[in-house]
TrEMBL record:
SUPFAM superfamilies: NAD(P)-binding Rossmann-fold domains. Gene3D superfamilies: NAD(P)-binding Rossmann-like Domain. This is (-)-isopiperitenol/(-)-carveol dehydrogenase. It comes from Arachis hypogaea (Peanut). It holds the Pfam family adh_short_C2. Belongs to the short-chain dehydrogenases/reductases (SDR) family.
Amino acid sequence: MIFFLGNIRRCTYVHCDVANEDQVKILVNTTVNSHGKLDIMFSNAGILSPSDQTVLDLDISQFDRLFAVNARGMALCVKHAARAMMEGRVRGSIVCTGSVAATHGTPRRVDYTMSKHAVLGLVRAASLQLAAHGIRVNCVSPNALATPLTCASFGLETEEMQMLYAHNARLRGMVLTPKHVADAVLFLVSGDSEFVTGHDLVVDGSYIGG
């Protein structure tokens, strides 16, 4: 997912496989070289397994690929963003995309659930370790969004997917949209949250887990 936050006057695209540390370094260095510093890192890359795995039928090759992106990739982005912020003496803000799966058990997709627990652990640890440098690290955890990725995974159309996800939220009369998530990210990277770190901001309509 790509979220456009505010009025962007200049945008640069850099192809990056977040599981590849050299490519993450290039991404961060390109940003610093182009703009002089790095103030914000929104680490949003994530994938789903190609199959609906439980622990009993866990395919380790699929597990490894998912963790390479969802956990390893997230850690690499936080690592190199934080280093750039420290070197530039920037009181920066790092936001990671989590999930309601980080705080609930799930009846399927055990690898995805584990990966999002890892993201939450990363945020909690990094926020403590980087606080002395004035760098904030937070997490936004939405309920599921009806994106092309999730729709393809379930074999459903967008409206069908939205109805399914809406059923799993207690907040009625609304459907979660990318803008709801983007607004939460914008809050966490803005001055309005300058004393907030190590926080998991759920955007889930009071998700009905389990």
